[in-house]
Amino acid sequence: MKKELRSPKWTKEETMIVLNFYLNHRPSIPNKNSEEILKLSSILNIYGQKNGIDLSIYPKYRNPNGVYMKCMNMKSVENPGTGLSNRATGSGIEQIVWDEYSGDPNKLKREVDQLINFNQSHSEIPNFSWLDTIIIAYKNLGGDKEFIHYSKVYLEVKKIRKSRGLTWPSSAEAQIRKNVEVRSQDSDVWDYTKPDIFEKKNPNKNTGYWKLKNYETDYDFFKKYNELPQKEQRKYTTINRIIRNTKIIRQIKEMYKNVCQICKTKIRLNNGKYYSEGAHIKPLGNNHKGKDAPNNILCLCPNCHTKLDLGVIYINDYMRVIETYSNNSWVLNFEDGHNIDIENIRYHKKYIYKLS
Fold first, then answer.
1. What is the pLDDT of residues 2-42, one digit of tens each?
2. Domain of 91?
3. Are both 225 and 347 inside the same structural domain?
4. Has residue 2 been placed in a domain?
5. Are 117 and 338 in contact (CB under 8 A)?
6. Are residues 159 and 119 in the same domain?
7. CB contact at 8 A, 299 and 261
């Protein structure tokens, strides 16, 4: 059975973001299903991604329920005699942040604004991800030809990230190991929805030696494709049909191993193959003129694809999928190297969702 990894401990910076929210909404904190809590959860998700968190590894990372509980922890810190003081408060980081910032909310706001200054768009998040730097590190060290120990990889990744102005958090070494091991069949924590691109020197022992293998990847494809000038690919016949670029859709589906980016459903056919669909956020047909490009395509199951096309669901600026009638929401899952154009998201919400 595959192990479910627990979300990393809350950092001081994340707790500052929550405290800023709490101070702006007290004494009436929005409930865990409110738009405000959903938005806060999405901001923390994007902040985590920006700082190296792979949301596919941590499926419950800063979800609305956890974020709401963190707000309640803040209430407990502020009101220790109200009966809320027995609520678990993690490692005490709430008290530390409260003592430092509760008396100066303007200072807190300034620092939080700097932390989350990323234009609230997934496509604006630096796509030079942990996996990118790990792969570059292995190549720099010759790890595509021979096994390299983690200790050397740590140093090389740190050097690369520093040169790109990226952070090196205390969890960096753990992030590197997890990014490698969830992408290898030799690992106990292999995620079958991810490409098998790393090989362990001795599958039966934890020696720390790994190498890069089979790197004919989707990531290279997307980087090359996104550098090309995009033109609408139309062929006109008597019925004026847009010819979809099936290679791009196939690459998207292969990248996600046919797992739906919304509900994570993976449909297995009787012949042993798997089925998914390439969904265009901004439609290709009629007057929409959406592009057949990676930044406009999602890998979805037929059910979610239908909901998207009919406007039953929409995607907000924080890459969270909202189903209004049921009050449900999901984090839209992304693989490294696949970014969505925020304008396609906004177009769908304005012209497809609003018309349903």
1. 455 678 889 999 999 999 999 998 888 888 877 788 888 88
2. 12-124
3. yes
4. no
5. no
6. no
7. yes
